[in-house]
Design brief:
alpha+beta; 4 helices; single chain; six-stranded mixed sheet
């Protein structure tokens, strides 16, 4: 059985390559993906298509150079925890930001079934104003 750590690492590796299909590959069709309240694409989205459109495509419309930099990936059995930073420049204001973030992942049978983001949304909001 594939460990949660390895599944999540494959997502982050694909992100580093700019490979959206690779990022979505380990996502279960029933996966619940939650972006933090106060974040530009806040909400819970179910399945790879909704996640792609409401998170990754939405961020591309709002920001130039949106990047997640992973500092630490923790193995927690059927869970993994990614700690890092988001950076980008708001297309509307031209302001840049660098915000700390934690991602909590749950993996079952080699697929991501749950994701929750915890982010410093105030920093992102300031860049958008």
């Amino acid at each position: 059985m594939t460990k949660a750590y390895d599944v999540v690492k494959s997502h982050y590796d694909a992100s580093d390559r700019g490979d959206l299909d690779g990022m979505l590959a380990p996502i279960s069709p029933q996966a619940r993906w939650t972006e933090a309240e106060g974040f530009p694409c806040a909400g819970t989205y179910v399945g790879p298509g909704a996640i792609r459109d409401n998170v990754f495509v939405a961020l591309g419309r709002l920001f130039d150079g949106f990047t997640f930099t992973l500092d630490t990936l923790l193995d927690a059995g059927s869970h993994a925890v990614g700690v890092g930073s988001y950076s980008a420049t708001s297309k509307a204001t031209g302001k840049s930001f660098n915000a700390r973030v934690v991602h909590l992942w749950t993996v079952e049978d080699g697929k991501v079934v749950r994701f929750e983001q915890f982010a410093d949304t105030a920093i992102v909001a300031r860049a958008m104003r």
